[in-house]
Amino acid sequence: MDDAKPFRPEARNPRGFGDRRARDLAAERSILASVSEVYERYGFEALDTPAFEYADALGKFLPDSDRPNEGVFALTDDDDQWMALRYDLTAPLARFAAQNWETLPKPFRRYAYGPVWRNEKPGPGRFREFIQCDADTVGSARPEADAEIIAMAVEGLEAAGLPRGQAVVKINNRKLLNGLLSTAGVGSEGQKLAVLRAVDKLDRLGPDGVRLLLGEGRLDDSGDYTKGAGLGAKGIEAVIAFTAAGRGGRSETLDAIAAAIGGSAEGDEGLAELQAIGVALGGLGVGEDRAVFDPSVVRGLEYYTGPVFEAEALIEDETGKRISFGSVGGGGRYDDLVARFTGERTPATGFSFGVSRLAATLRAANRTPGGEARGPVVVIAFSQDHMAEYFAVASELRAAGIPAEVYLGQSGMKAQMKYADRRRSPFAIMLGEDELAAGEVSIKDLDEGLAASKSLASNELWKETRPGQYAVKRAELVAALKQRLGSRA
Amino acid sequence: MDDAKPFRPEARNPRGFGDRRARDLAAERSILASVSEVYERYGFEALDTPAFEYADALGKFLPDSDRPNEGVFALTDDDDQWMALRYDLTAPLARFAAQNWETLPKPFRRYAYGPVWRNEKPGPGRFREFIQCDADTVGSARPEADAEIIAMAVEGLEAAGLPRGQAVVKINNRKLLNGLLSTAGVGSEGQKLAVLRAVDKLDRLGPDGVRLLLGEGRLDDSGDYTKGAGLGAKGIEAVIAFTAAGRGGRSETLDAIAAAIGGSAEGDEGLAELQAIGVALGGLGVGEDRAVFDPSVVRGLEYYTGPVFEAEALIEDETGKRISFGSVGGGGRYDDLVARFTGERTPATGFSFGVSRLAATLRAANRTPGGEARGPVVVIAFSQDHMAEYFAVASELRAAGIPAEVYLGQSGMKAQMKYADRRRSPFAIMLGEDELAAGEVSIKDLDEGLAASKSLASNELWKETRPGQYAVKRAELVAALKQRLGSRA
Hints:
The structure is a homodimer.
Chain A: H1 22-41, E1 45-46, E2 52-54, H2 55-58, E3 74-76, E4 82-85, H3 90-100, E5 108-117, E6 129-138, H4 143-160, E7 167-173, H5 174-183, H6 189-200, H7 202-214, E8 217-219, E9 225-227, H8 233-243, H9 250-261, H10 265-283, E10 291-293, E11 307-316, E12 322-333, H11 339-342, E13 348-354, H12 355-364, E14 377-379, H13 387-399, E15 404-406, H14 413-422, E16 427-430, H15 433-438, E17 440-445, H16 446-455, H17 459-465, E18 469-473, H18 477-488
Parallel strand pairs in A: 1-5, 7-10, 14-15, 14-16
Antiparallel strand pairs in A: 2-4, 3-4, 5-6, 6-13, 7-11, 8-9, 11-12, 12-13, 16-17, 17-18
Helix pairs in contact in A: 1-4, 1-12, 4-10, 5-10, 6-7, 8-9, 9-10
């Protein structure tokens, strides 16, 4: 290596980590503001925990915790303790609640938002850093606490930009399937987990594929073999019948579930919880079009102990039927997470919006929360001699609440206009020698100019008529811009 | 180890990482919203880069980069590339600008906020994760670009809650001291850096301590010896005279600086830049009470190449004199950061608010941006039989924009009132059997109740009179609460 040649790193993002520009950020911030406002209206207080937790405090609760690095970004501190970046906002809440339990108001209701990190294989649209926005109630075993979480999810979806009919929250209860499996004689936790994982693939594989995974196993198209849960034929059909018990109305579904699980202490407990959730949802005014019971919902995380929730965006297919456009959040009851620290079971329930996912969904549905961002008004810099005057104009506009800037590069007029276009500026302001002499300012309406340049026949004609360009008295500039900005809002 | 006894991790924060509760977050969010609004008004667009950068892209620009781990949290990705968490928002911007230079509007003006991480020794009030909020202009060499950055810092301080007279931005230029050192025959970069570090300690050590560090070296009280920059007596006094050249007015200071640096090409260039910044600050309406030239300002970061800025909060001492209450932000011109990637010098300048520091400063000054957070209205849960009615009341209040919740624990009346107090609720709502029968609701004003309980002689009397408790018709609840909330706002 030549010492005289300096090292030049390549400017690139780490794999699976993206940059977000103004438009995406506006959408994301709009979602966070709307959902936070809902959470606060329900009496949840803000909390922010750090990016790092000690690895032992995080535990091993990720869906693919069988991978060697457990899906987290971990490192050792200089005292040799392992720390890891949080992979969700729930595990840090459990740590916080256990640590401060004595002094917290109970039940403790908090919301939180921020990035989480997963050390997973990146892919197109699959990032290793993304934003979540959660609300949780710690210290209440009441089904009403679950119902409230669901009601907030429903209201949050609407506030974020998915109105009624474009989203639904699906509700299930882990105890139902557990009860059914107990009745069917399935004993080990490992086997139950295998059944959960099989049911979780229902969307992707359909009932027949899931039947194979519930039984001996399944060979997929690529030749990979997945060992099955080892249920017998009767058990398999009982599970499939259970997952298909979803009906239109909430009480019809509960009846169908009752028939499908066939009676067991744990199953009945789960059913009673769902019934109580249904009653509370009624009291909270959450209609059957916005929250449904659906026994096919599983949720990947192992730590759920009772009700689980999944929020799905809906879209109309060709026949007008509303079909799922993907999950935009989920949650459930997890009564054991705080107990990991304290040894005492502490009931808890919560919901997490996948904010990045929700923003992408809204973008795909051609909705842009936060609106299309416009750039600032650009004051053209003709001459170094008059910079103070340009700055005075920009200051005046800013003081009137109009974003504005003086062009600060070294390029000429044409490049400055191109710059204003790239910034999506609504107007360029020109104070050339002529304008200064006349006590005037020229306003160039860049949208009009663009439209005219497309329709006018020749460049010459364009130059002559100067479409979208108007002169106003210097003192009337702010009023003129306000009027023009107002009329297009 | 006994296998039957499960492992219980201790619930604790990693060293140097704190949790932030509602009050602190409200302050922080209020600062971010105010400062972002200023940045946007100046035409800066939002950008968010990921937490991680490749280590080679971050470079070694931290003040204490002589430590072995270079002050960052780093780990290897599964393809063996080193990644590190960003330690500021400037290095990621340089990477982003180099990566996207062709397609960016130029000059590129962006603002950004978010956490940064420093792997430093934690201490009281010294965290390893904190929030910064930056604005930078990349691609403009004009001193007007620096002036604009300074104007935004000044306006941002005011928007964040430090009005005129309670904050000042101090401006210096690295080229001045460099020019002075060249004239004094100081050649090596290492020696120049040693001089900068010595001057940076002026606040802490005073001129005599700095004289030692500029010369042979200094033995501190703990017995540690710091090798000096090795200047001769004449050079030492020239540097000290330079740092003391700050005067009241901006132009007086520039005259004093001109006299102190005694002429050199680089020094004259630095002086001309400050002069141009002064003119532009005038055009931007930034008065001499809010931005001053101060040759004692250094800024720790090595990458600055010209003007440097430091924002200080001010407080009145006993004599009424305004003294520094600590740095709350800083910045400067860094023309070489993008060149690290591209090989082409790209002029850039920016400013960074230390948001966590600013929030702590405002708290210490008894100002709480975002206001004192009040909790939600709490609907007392007397009986499971009437939960639906409690929920209906809470829903009504929320629909009217009043944060509200139903108590969802299992405790009795007294604990529920204590809960409401802990949440800093303004009101508790009671629907007991009596109220339900009468079609009424009882409102308990918790502030009034608290005040009365302190002043009343006996607990018995308190029970009889029920201070701060009022009955209203069920249908008039929302209107009654709105009126009471309004009258105390």
